[in-house]
Design goal:
- With 555 residues, this protein is an alpha/beta fold.
- It has three domains: 284 residues, TIM Barrel; 104 residues, Orthogonal Bundle (Helix Hairpins), CATH 1.10.287; 111 residues, 2-Layer Sandwich (Double Stranded RNA Binding Domain), CATH 3.30.160.
- The chain is built from 17 helices and 16 strands.
- The strands form four sheets. It has an eight-stranded parallel sheet.
- A hairpin with an 8-residue loop joins strand 14 and strand 15.
- Helix 3 packs parallel to helix 4 and helix 13 packs across helix 15.
- The structure holds 3-methyl-2-oxobutanoic acid and zinc ion.
- Zinc ion (ZN) binds next to loops.
Length: 555
């Protein structure tokens, strides 16, 4: 990076609007929405959607409540043209939905675009040409007059062909592309020239779209540009002022919200912000931002997970885990203090005493959009033994005896400390398995049988001791007592079993039982062991061996 970026970059000039009104306004209602998923979103995909994917997404957009949908660039390719024709000929467009198509100011393209709309009930023809100084100079090498001429000729070519769309209710839309990088006075001049051709009226308005094609500055400047245009353009009441923001500085949502305050009537964007570079405006976020203020967004996102699933499947894009509202982790709390506050907030909400949603850390009720609140408990080196036990229990059904928690807690904490990070339940389980279940040295079980006569149990165990086969036999009032005697008979220092617990492991966990056993040596030392087996008797034998192995390892 440059030490002095001012040698290469410069601030974007402010709009002169000392009496700007938008900062004092609040949002009160939803704008008209237009989805550009099938056009701006689609054109930015590595593999653009095929016709059946476009159809599925179109139907989903309709289901969400979009009344204006930009379906493509019919003059750009046969696929785009055919898609438009299929929508119209197969009568897939509900009566109240406007089919919007985009076209450049070129006569042949306009001709083909109009052709693609024949038979549509409601159609928006969206004409655009770029107006910013950089586009004028670098891309087109044209003067302001020549750029204005392109817009006017385009508007005339559209007007001349409207008679081909008899029976279609047509609305016209013009975009001075790169509006936000254009001098406001020039953008107004071009837009007014187009208005002179199309002659919109308050009864038959045209859409003036104000693209933030590339975000070049802070959202307040875009709001000033929008307010300036709304206040200075002629015949404002004959216009539907529309916003079309992108997200290059990550403020597409903010720019749109401020643009709405600045007087816009309509918003274009895509689901989850898919679009060129950093994306288009994310309509879901703006709509749910309105919802969380108590404003009906007029779009239905009650099943956001299903919407996200179709979106990801048809676009091949992934919604980042922290994406507002839709991200996998948005309603997940990791921090203990957040979890505590949320628990209290949800409990308070459940009493029904509260009129308005006010649960700390949850901006809206996840249930309203078909989602669920989730807690993630993790352990770090500062977590107590309770945290370790909770995770093993809640995630794997491993219900450690209290005293064993006291033994395993510090072992786990030491390992977490060594790793220098938090660990998940799965990692804790592996630690537990390594420490207790997977110990096979010096003792390893090869086979164990018992027979019982007159209340006396006799056991025979085939073992490996440091890999060497050993046979053990003993008698007692139960299999474990017989095993302990058998070890004494082998000459091992005496030990006794002082605690024993067992339980089934949760389904899927090796469909097995787990036994926990604490042994006490004659010198007073105690050790826990654990064993897992589909046979509960074998699980407890393994637990004894685990405790013995651990005691010998720690000598
Ligand atoms: O970003 C843009 O400027 C566009 C226009 C064609 C509206 O997509
Ligand atoms: Zn765009």
């Amino acid at each position: 990076m440059l030490k002095d970026p001012s040698t290469k970059y410069r601030p974007f000039p402010a709009v002169r609007l000392p009496d700007r009104q938008w900062p004092n306004r609040t949002l009160t209602h939803a704008p008209m929405w237009c989805s550009v998923d099938l056009r701006d979103g689609n054109q930015a995909l590595a593999i653009p959607m095929n016709v059946s994917q476009k159809l599925e997404l179109f139907q989903l957009l309709v289901k969400c409540g979009f009344k204006e949908i930009e379906v493509g660039f019919p003059s750009a390719s046969n696929t785009e043209f055919t898609f438009n024709r299929r929508l119209i000929e197969e009568q897939r467009v509900p009566e109240d939905v406007w089919l919007q198509v985009l076209v450049q100011a070129r006569e042949d393209l306009i001709e083909r675009t109009v052709e693609s709309l024949v038979g549509a009930k409601k159609a928006i023809i969206h004409l655009y040409n770029s107006t910013s100084p950089a586009q004028r100079r670098i891309v087109f090498g044209m003067s302001r007059e020549e750029i204005l001429g392109i817009a006017v000729r385009g508007a005339q070519w559209v007007r001349e062909r409207l008679s081909q769309l008899k029976g279609t209710e047509v609305r016209l839309q013009y975009s001075p592309e790169s509006f936000s990088a254009t001098e406001v006075e020039f953008a107004k001049e071009v837009a007014e020239a187009v208005m002179d051709v199309w002659k919109p009226t308050p009864q038959h308005k045209m859409i003036l779209n104000l693209p933030d094609t590339v975000e070049v500055t802070t959202p307040n400047v875009y709001a000033d540009q929008v307010e300036w245009t709304c206040r200075n353009i002629k015949n404002r009441d004959s216009l539907i002022v529309s916003l079309h923001t992108h997200n290059d500085r990550a403020t597409g949502v903010a720019a749109t919200e401020l643009g709405m305050l600045a007087g816009a009537d309509r918003v274009e964007g895509t689901l989850f912000g898919n679009g060129e570079r950093t994306g288009n405006l994310d309509i879901v976020t703006v709509a749910l931002n309105l919802y969380m203020q108590g404003i009906d967004p007029k779009l239905d996102f009650s099943d956001l997970n299903a919407l996200a699933e179709v979106y990801e499947r048809s676009t091949g894009m992934r919604i980042p885990p922290r994406h507002p509202y839709a991200g996998e982790l948005v309603f997940t709390a990791f921090s203990g203090s957040h979890q505590d506050a949320i628990k209290k907030g949800l409990a308070e909400w459940a009493t029904g005493r509260q009129k308005y949603w006010e649960v700390p850390y949850l901006t809206i009720d996840p249930a309203d959009i078909g989602r669920q609140y989730r807690e993630v408990i993790r352990v770090n080196s500062q977590s107590g033994k309770g945290g370790v036990a909770y995770l093993l229990e809640s995630e794997y059904g491993i219900d450690l005896p209290k005293e064993m928690q006291r033994e395993f807690g510090p072992i786990a904490n030491e390992e977490v400390d060594r790793l220098g990070r938090e660990v998940t339940g799965a990692e804790l389980k592996s630690m537990f398995w390594r420490e207790y279940i997977e110990r096979t040295s010096p003792w390893q079980l090869q086979g164990f049988e018992t027979e019982s006569r007159n209340g006396v149990v006799r056991c025979r165990a085939r073992l490996l001791r440091e890999g060497e086969p050993v046979e053990l036999s003993g008698e007692g009032n139960g299999p474990l007592a017989a095993l302990v005697r058998g070890f004494s008979a082998l000459g091992l220092p005496r030990f006794e079993i002082v605690s024993y617990r067992e339980h089934a492991l949760s389904a899927g966990e090796e469909a097995a039982a787990i036994a926990y056993i604490q042994i006490k040596h004659s010198d007073g030392r105690t050790h826990w062991g654990a064993g897992v087996d589909t046979n509960i008797e074998l699980a407890s034998v393994r637990a004894v061996l685990s405790a013995l192995n651990r005691s010998q390892a720690s000598k």
